[in-house]
Amino acid sequence: MTIGTNQRRLSGSENFDEVFELVKTATEQSLGKHRAGLTLVLGDIPNSVGAFHEMGSNAIVMNRNLLKIIERLAKSRTSKNAYVFMILLHEYLHSLGYTDDRQVRLLGKRITNEFLGGKHIAAEMAVRPLDQFFPDLPKYSVFRDKGQFETIRRFDSSSTPYIA
Fold it and tell me: What are residue 60's DSSP bridge partners?
């Protein structure tokens, strides 16, 4: 696939599963590494944390409140999907055993440059603060901890076709 095709596929992605398939493809093309069987959980976690992956687990926990704020502030599906791509790529790299956040950010930038092009917003999101892309973010970022978590049913479906 070409960079233009990858950009169109990301912009046209309609759910987490479609974005994550692109994350896995980009990572495998760049690093030759792959991991199957991950679960995505949307959770009420502090807004200073976009997402996390606990080493040894099979779950990525994404900040639900921050995602809702980004959905409100994003001027296009491209921006929203770029955010989701960057967050999932960052945590996917952690799930592959990369523990140093600085290294993960640089790898994320490299992978995104190769897959989506260096001028794509996701490539910049990998290494720059989110408020540079969403200037109104600090206005909305009051943490609302309801302690709720939601597992996304259709995620990493190419790795787990046996799950209904």
Answer: 40, 53
